[in-house]
């Protein structure tokens, strides 16, 4: 938003406040001034006012003119000019030989197609006062020829332009009066509003034209005035300079007035040629589906039934509401009767229309950020006043004001104690009331605790108490609020066992070479069919989403396995082979439909595939197997002091039946571990890869975790070692059952046990497997004799034979 410092002072007197100081105050108040642009002008004395006495077509170039120009000397000079508006008796700035133009060009006499030009008739861009190069600059007819040009002659003023970067919620400051309101509050100066009264003549406006709003939700208010007998022409220099200084192009006196009032009050307006409106009617309606409409930029646009349009009595579209008018009703040089529109359109509707059409205008930019609903008629009258002053004509009696929906102002309660709590400083109630009042907030009631405040219609961004406190803080000036360190004691640490266990799990898995992944908590329900558990609890207890991101993410996940397999697929697609991932994430079960929220469970899952280690000359690559993953999980449980059993299982269809185990802790199933079934791997496009994964609940693990440390003194007496070789029927007895029986029978002298050999071969009967254990015996009280060790060792052998039917090798 560009704001002219000189224009700003029409509404608020800045006194001795410099532009730089004002910019700093505005920035601290939330209106960030991103830059200052000085507009200064210096002109050579060799640039004077000249009058064209005669114009002839150049003998060698039809697009050039040979002009005789009076510059106040005895003899006119000859100047060659190519401007299309070159005409007799036009007065214009003339640069004589020796003049230096603002762009650095030095003017000298020169032959142009054989004709000597003794100077240069200047356009505005050549004088550096605008970008207009449509023709030579036309000066007032009463200026004496030969007068050196000056700021007064050219209608320009030295100025400073403030470039303000507004946040989207501050649509009220998209005008000079809006910024002036902020300045008046900051400087404690009165704010002056521009006059909008004018003589009303002729017929009542209701007898000339009518307005109908068919969709009041999208257009809550529409006002219009009628002017007859206007004369379209160039704008006076003051108006032209005002709009050009802030980046807009001058068109004609009527269009420039609508732009001027928009820049002044923030209310976009649009002027229609009244005689081009069928039935002299305005109908605010939605566009027809696939309707086509040509806008003022001569572009045909395809519309739909969500776009709000302005139509005439034949329901012919004449403008896209709040965005751009139509080519079929634009103001032209022959226009004499005008219908001037000033309306309020729904910000969301205008935003959608602008994005849909790829068409952003100064009007749509303001409507998108909301304008002042209650000042629509004020801006209309202001623009009407200026048009009849600058373009002549008469204004009809009254205005059309369609306001179908009642407006109720918002009231917000403000507590003084809350202001102190938020800002960290106590501000007296008189100062608070003054700040709010000068910003336009009306204090309705005053209580001991605070105020009840009515929010002005131009501040739709203020809806809560905290918004009022922000207004107070920014105007009071944040620099006036002292910096304070937080008060109070630092709270003591609250123990959280689940968080601590999760941290240990993460640390342990990372230390074993796994990488953590984080997947979405949503999944495609079809992945359960790929895993073969679509009808199996708890996987089938699905929680659907009402508004999913995509169809593939339409449900909360009941397992983390599809996400991990997706990670494997993605990495293998990028030629990454040796993979070790883990995830600590939540799954969701709808166990009870009467509950508003589903059950949430945190799962620990991991996946391994590829080689055990990278390529090396020192050792051969071996593929990862079941025991690699089992060892990782065992290390984790050992770190948490949790005793677990890995029992063979077939209840998980996605695991290979020969390489699957259920994790059991104190008789409670915790989860599963094993190799992905080849069919399931195929369903996930993983081919014949050997993939091992585990998934188990965190909560039961937390319950069994113990961080207690016990001291064990170094043994005083030596240990005795014996080997135990046994033959066990394959797939009939769990190794954990054998180890548990050995441990119980050998207690208390059995100190340690380790399986160090597993054998299947010709010396073992078919369907059997051989295990060899190393048993370590030790007493804490004495050195054991061979007889004492043999007695216990024999008891273990007898127990294995009698209880499990195991043979001794």
Automatic annotation (TrEMBL):
Gene3D superfamilies: 3.30.56.10, Bira Bifunctional Protein, Domain 2, Ferrodoxin-fold anticodon-binding domain, Nucleic acid-binding proteins, Phenylalanyl-trna Synthetase, Chain B, domain 3. It is found in: Cytoplasm. GO terms for biological process: phenylalanyl-tRNA aminoacylation. CDD domains: PheRS_beta_core, tRNA_bind_bactPheRS. Residues 407-483 form the B5 domain. GO terms for cellular component: phenylalanine-tRNA ligase complex. It catalyses: tRNA(Phe) + L-phenylalanine + ATP = L-phenylalanyl-tRNA(Phe) + AMP + diphosphate + H(+). GO terms for molecular function: ATP binding; magnesium ion binding; phenylalanine-tRNA ligase activity; tRNA binding. Its EC number is 6.1.1.20. It comes from the Bacteria. Keywords: Aminoacyl-tRNA synthetase, ATP-binding, Cytoplasm, Ligase, Magnesium, Metal-binding, Nucleotide-binding, Protein biosynthesis, RNA-binding, tRNA-binding. Signal peptide: none annotated. Its main location: cytoplasm. Residues 715-809 form the FDX-ACB domain. Binds 2 magnesium ions per tetramer. InterPro entries: aa-tRNA-synth_II/BPL/LPL, B3/B4_tRNA-bd, DNA-bd_dom_put_sf, Fdx_antiC-bd, Fdx_antiC-bd_sf, NA-bd_OB-fold, Phe-tRNA-ligase_IIc_bsu, Phe-tRNA-ligase_IIc_bsu_bact. Mg(2+) binds at residues 461, 467, 470-471. Residues 41-150 form the TRNA-binding domain. Belongs to the phenylalanyl-tRNA synthetase beta subunit family. Type 1 subfamily. HAMAP family: Phe_tRNA_synth_beta1 (MF_00283). This is Phenylalanine--tRNA ligase beta subunit. It comes from Vecturithrix granuli.
């Amino acid at each position: 938003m560009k704001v002219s410092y000189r224009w700003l002072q029409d509404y608020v007197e800045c006194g001795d406040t410099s532009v730089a100081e004002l910019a700093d105050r505005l920035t601290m108040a939330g209106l960030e001034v991103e830059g200052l642009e000085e507009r200064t002008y210096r002109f050579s004395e060799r640039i004077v006012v000249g009058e064209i006495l005669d114009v002839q077509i150049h003998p060698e170039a039809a697009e050039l003119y040979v002009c005789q120009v009076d510059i106040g000397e005895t003899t006119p000079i000859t100047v060659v000019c190519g401007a299309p508006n070159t005409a007799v008796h036009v007065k214009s700035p003339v640069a004589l030989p020796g003049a230096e133009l603002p762009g650095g060009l030095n003017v000298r006499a020169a032959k142009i197609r054989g004709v000597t030009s003794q100077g240069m008739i200047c356009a505005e861009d050549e004088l550096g006062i605008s970008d207009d190069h449509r023709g030579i600059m036309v000066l007032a007819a009463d200026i004496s020829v030969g007068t050196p040009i000056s700021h007064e002659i050219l209608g320009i003023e030295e100025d400073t332009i403030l470039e303000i970067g507004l946040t989207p919620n501050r649509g009220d400051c998209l005008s000079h009066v809006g910024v002036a309101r902020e300045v008046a509050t900051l400087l404690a100066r009165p704010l002056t509003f521009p006059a909008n009264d004018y003589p009303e003549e002729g017929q009542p406006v209701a007898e000339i034209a009518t307005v109908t709003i068919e969709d009041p939700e999208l257009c809550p208010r529409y006002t219009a005035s009628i002017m007859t007998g206007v004369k379209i022409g160039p704008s006076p220099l003051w108006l032209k300079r005002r709009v050009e200084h802030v980046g807009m192009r001058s068109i004609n006196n009527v269009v420039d007035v609508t732009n001027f009032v928009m820049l002044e009050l923030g209310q976009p307006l649009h002027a229609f040629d009244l005689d081009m409106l069928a039935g002299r009617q305005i109908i605010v309606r939605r566009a027809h589906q696939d309707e086509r409409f040509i806008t003022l930029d001569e572009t045909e646009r395809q519309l739909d039934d969500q776009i709000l349009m302005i139509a005439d009595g034949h329901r012919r579209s004449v403008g896209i509401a709040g965005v751009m008018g139509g080519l079929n009703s634009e103001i032209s040089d022959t226009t004499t009767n005008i219908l001037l529109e000033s309306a309020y359109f729904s910000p969301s509707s205008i935003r959608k229309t602008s994005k849909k059409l790829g068409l952003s205008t100064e009007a749509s930019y303001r409507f998108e950020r909301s304008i002042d609903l209650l000042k629509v008629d004020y801006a209309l009258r202001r623009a009407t006043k200026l048009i009849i002053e600058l373009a002549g004509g008469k204004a009809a009696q009254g205005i059309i004001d369609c306001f179908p929906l009642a407006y109720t102002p918002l009231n917000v309660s403000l507590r003084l104690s809350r202001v102190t709590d938020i800002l960290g400083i106590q501000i007296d109630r008189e100062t608070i009331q003054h700040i709010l009042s000068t910003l336009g907030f009306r204090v309705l009631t005053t209580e001991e605790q605070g105020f009840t405040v009515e929010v002005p219609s131009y501040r739709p961004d203020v809806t809560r108490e905290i918004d009022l406190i922000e207004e107070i803080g920014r105007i009071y000036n944040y620099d006036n609020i002292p910096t304070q360190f937080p008060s109070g004691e630092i709270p003591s640490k609250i123990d959280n066992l689940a968080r601590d266990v999760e941290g240990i799990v993460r640390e342990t898995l990372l230390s074993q070479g796994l990488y953590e992944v984080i997947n979405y908590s949503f999944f495609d329900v079809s992945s359960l069919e790929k895993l073969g558990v679509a009808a199996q609890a708890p996987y089938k207890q699905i929680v659907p989403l009402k508004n999913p991101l995509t169809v593939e993410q339409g449900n909360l996940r009941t397992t983390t396995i599809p996400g991990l397999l997706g990670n494997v697929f993605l990495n293998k697609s990028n030629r990454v082979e040796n993979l070790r991932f883990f995830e600590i994430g939540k799954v969701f079960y709808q166990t009870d439909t009467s509950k508003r929220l589903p059950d949430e469970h945190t799962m620990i899952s991991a996946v391994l595939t590829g080689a055990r280690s990278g390529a090396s000359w020192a050792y051969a690559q071996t593929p990862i197997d079941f025991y690699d993953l089992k060892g990782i999980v065992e290390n984790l449980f050992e770190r948490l002091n949790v005793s677990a059993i890995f029992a063979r299982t077939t209840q998980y269809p996605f695991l290979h039946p020969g390489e699957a185990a259920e994790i059991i802790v104190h008789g409670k199933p915790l989860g599963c571990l094993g190799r992905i079934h080849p069919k399931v791997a195929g369903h996930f496009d993983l081919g014949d890869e050997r993939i091992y994964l585990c998934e188990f609940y965190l909560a039961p693990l937390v319950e069994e975790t113990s961080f207690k440390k016990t001291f064990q003194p170094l043994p005083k007496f030596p240990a005795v070692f014996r080997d135990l070789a046994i033959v066990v029927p394959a797939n009939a007895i769990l190794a954990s059952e054998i180890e548990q029986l050995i441990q119980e029978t050998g207690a208390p002298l059995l100190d340690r046990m380790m399986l160090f050999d597993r054998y299947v071969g010709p010396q073992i009967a078919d369907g059997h497997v051989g295990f060899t254990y190393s048993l370590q015996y030790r007493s804490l009280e004495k050195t054991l004799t061979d007889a004492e060790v043999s007695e216990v060792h024999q008891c273990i052998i007898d127990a294995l034979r009698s209880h499990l039917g195991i043979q001794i090798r």
